[in-house]
Structures are given as C-alpha cells and as structure tokens.
User: Fold this.
Amino acid sequence: MKKIKVELGENSYEIRVGSGMMERIGLWLREKDFSGKAVIITDSNVGPLYASVLERSLANASFKVTVLEVPAGEEQKSLETAGSLYNKLAAAYTERTSLVLALGGGVVGDLAGFVAATYMRGVPLIQVPTTLLAMVDSSVGGKTAVDHGQLKNIIGAFYQPKFVIADIDTLKTLPREELSNGMAEVIKLAAIRDRGFFEFLEKNMEQAMALHAGTLEEIVVKNAAYKAEIVGKDEKESGQRIILNYGHTIGHAIEAVSNFKIKHGQAVAMGMIEENKIAGRLGMLRESDAERIEEVIKIAGLPTKIPNLSTEDKEKVLEAVKHDKKVLNDRVRFILLKAIGNAVISDRVEPELIGEVLFGWGKT
Ligand SMILES: NC(=O)c1ccc[n+]([C@@H]2O[C@H](COP(=O)([O-])OP(=O)(O)OC[C@H]3O[C@@H](n4cnc5c(N)ncnc54)[C@H](O)[C@@H]3O)[C@@H](O)[C@H]2O)c1
Assistant:
C-alpha cells in the first residue's frame, strides 16, 4: 500500500492506494478518530459488488452503517437525486459528525461529495473511488457538483474529503471502456509533465490494460501524487491547474456536440491528438513526439480520429471552442505541448487554423 498526502493546511488529507483495502477502511477511520454513523452512497452497479464488504468493514469497527444506492449514470448528478439523498440522510438521523462515504466512480464521487458538502453545511466526506478516472482524477481535489439542465457541473462546491482510499482490486470488474476512459487522463498528465512517466506508459500500457495489479497501482499512485501536488498549490483552480486542460479545449467541444454520446475520455484522446497537430503547425511539437502519444492512446483502447460530422456539427465544434472556459480577452487559450512532458499555455491559435487542422477547411 502507498500513501500520498494532499497538503492543504487544516484541510490536508491522505490518499491510500493498494490492494485489499476495502476490508481495512473501518479500522483506518477509527484510527483517524472517526466514530458513530457512516452512510455509504453508491450506485446500482457498484453497490452489489462492493457495498457489503465496505459495510462489514465499517460495522466491525463499530460504525452504525446505512447504505444508500442510486441508479448508475450521469443523470443522477442532479439536484433531484441530491434532494432524495438529503431526505434519506435525515431519515437515518445523520449528524454533523457522521461520515459520508462515496463508493463508486466520478458520478457517485461528485454527487455524494456535493451532498456531503451541503448537508448540515458539511459533514465529513470519505472518497472510495472504484473507477480509474475517479482514482486518478475526480476523487482528489475537492471539486463536487451536480448538473442542471444541459449544464454540466454547474452547481457545486469545493469541498475536500477527509480521506481517499483507492482499492486497485475494484478495477477488475470495471468495464474495459471505462478503464480506457480513465487512461486518457493518465496519458494526459504524463504528456504535460513527465517524459519519464510517459516512457513508463509506453512500456507498460498493454500490461495495465490487461489489469496487471502492480502496474495499475504504480499508475494510480503517480497520478494521484501529481494531482495532489497541483491541488496543493492551487486549491481553487485559479492558476496552475489550467494546464490539466490539455486535450480538453477540443475534447470538450466534441463531447458537447455529440450530446455526451462520446465519452469524456474518448473526447480527450481525440482532443490531445488534434491539439498536438495544432502545436505541430505552430512549430512547437515534433511529429515523432505526436506519433508516440497517438500510439499510447491507441494501445489504451481510445479513438484517434474525430468521427465524421455534418457541416453543421463541425461549425458547432468551432463555436464551442470559441466559448471554452479558458477564454481570456476574447482569445482562446490552448494548452499545447512543446515536447512530451512540457506543456505551455498559448493564445496564438487562430480560429482558421483550428478549422483547417480538424476538418481540412481552407486548404487549397
Ligand atoms: N470532481 C472532479 O474533479 C471530476 C474530474 C473528472 C470527472 N469528474 C466527473 O466524473 C464523472 C465521470 O466519472 P466516471 O468516469 O468514473 O464515471 P461513472 O461514475 O459513471 O462510472 C462509470 C461506470 O462504471 C460503473 N462502475 C464504477 N466502478 C465500477 C467497478 N469497480 N466495477 C464495475 N462497474 C463500475 C459505474 O456504475 C458506471 O456505470 C463525470 O460526472 C465527471 O463530471 C469529476
């Protein structure tokens, strides 16, 4: 088992990563002086697999446990579901010191995190991520939210967990497509800041996709440590954290235009490849580095090409890029690579170049 500390003054917390962790969570929480009631919030895929082992672990450590299950899926990240969870927390006589454990992927993490942040103005939150994406990204950093109408993550709060416990064994039951989705964020982080780790991924991606526990543990530890470091320097995402948006400017646009039928990880993979082409056109990134990134993306089971789009949808993609959240002084800011492991913020990308790289527009 490996331990990582997120340094945030009095909001600091620890991340533990390893195998066979679920059985030990109750004991660890007692060691951290938690006691009393514990509410596990999970979804209809994860609950049947892991809620009982977590429940037993907590009950053995003398917690009084309630399990609340919501249907699986992004649609549950809503005020309505949050409302029904508040009712159930009230029915279980949840107190200010009672724990909320988010057992699941990023959807459960964001939803349960939002509920924990707001119920009684905040009850202690423990993240128990069960997808690769949640282990390397969403469970660390304290961003919690629900969606509202068409707007994703629009209602939320920064609310740090007290503890993050990532049990690698849970990845064995994760659908392969979800493993690939998480891997997009892993590749992104290596590409923006660590050439050595990128080389590790080149050598080990096949093993990781074959669920080799040691390799997966190393990947999760490395990524959680990066995320912890970045969050420690920039808790509320005002500066540094922007470089985590590599692949996301175009990725988000494609994801939105597909009406979220294209999964986030898949869209980010396409985004990284297209943004590398842009960096290449600006004379920043060597073709050989772009090819290496594309190869790792392919081995991770992610798409390397934008799907065929109608002209109308292509226009919508460009429009969405123009309204990216990183726009400053009317200029879209891209995170571009100068080399593998070296990302910079650039506002030199003209809209014409985006149309040309993505759709071959304006070429003679
Ligand atoms: N808070 C943040 O910083 C942050 C960062 C990135 C993404 N997110 C959010 O995360 C969400 C996506 O998270 P996700 O990709 O983990 O999706 P998810 O939570 O929907 O999980 C994917 C699917 O896998 C199932 N599942 C989860 N763990 C499993 C396991 N061990 N075995 C079998 N099935 C399992 C789930 O039930 C679901 O069907 C989005 O809502 C996104 O907005 C948040």
